[in-house]
Amino acid sequence: MIYFTSDLHLGHNNILKFTGRPYDSMEEMNRELIRNINFRVTKNDWLYILGDVSHHILPEQTNQLLARINGRKVLVRGNHDKEYDPALFEEICDYKKLFAYGKTFILSHYPFLSWDRMAAGSLMLHGHIHSTGEYNEENRADGLLRYDVGVDANGLRPVSAYEVLEFFGLR
Questions:
Q1: Of 29, 130, 133, 152, which shows the fewest CB atoms inside 10 Å?
Q2: Is the pLDDT score of 171 beyond 90?
């Protein structure tokens, strides 16, 4: 199975206020976000993290948290990502084109207005904007195959490729 997530912001106290996440502390947020991922993602599943794994903590601290996360991880770097331990990832990149389930997924931390194979039905998955689910609904209503995979738009959990395809009626 393939899963996507973004904008965990592990270690970032202010993200609680900025996004209204329902946690009393950064430690609780870290623990619960990792629990939410591990509830869905097995050690053999693919987990594409589209940036901003952590913020305001040392890379070593992030590595310790990442080591607790299930899945074969791929990092598509975001604006807050540091040099993490490459052994924790299958790949680290700035942009990724993924072919899965008969579709092309364009992966970036940042949302694009136009993307590769857009006219041929490719999907643009991103994070960065900390949207609510309303953003994804608006894109669907406008006929745009663009989806925010960030935790704030997806019930504080990763979203599967199947769920994204179903959301757009492509499965």
A1: 133
A2: no
For 107-156, the pLDDT digits (tens) are 999 999 999 999 999 999 999 999 999 999 999 999 999 999 999 999 99
Find the mean pLDDT for residues 76-96: 96
Buried b (16+ CB within 10 A) or exposed e, 65-104: bbeebbbbbbbbbbebbeebeeebbeebeeebebeeeebb
Instruction: State both tokens at 52.
Output: 């901003």
Closest CA to 32 of 130, 145, 157: 157
**Gap between the Cα atoms of 21 and 140, Å rounded:** 25
3-state secondary structure the chain: CEEEEECCCECCCHHHHHHCCCCCCHHHHHHHHHHHHHHHCCCCCEEEECCCCECCCCHHHHHHHHCCCCCEEEEECCCCCCCCCHHHCCEEECCEEEEECCEEEEECCCCCCCCCCHHHCCEEEECCCCCCHHHHHHHHHCCCCEEECEHHHCCCCCEEHHHHHHHCCCC
Question: Of 148, 138, 97, 137, which Cα lies nearest the Cα of 120?
Answer: 97
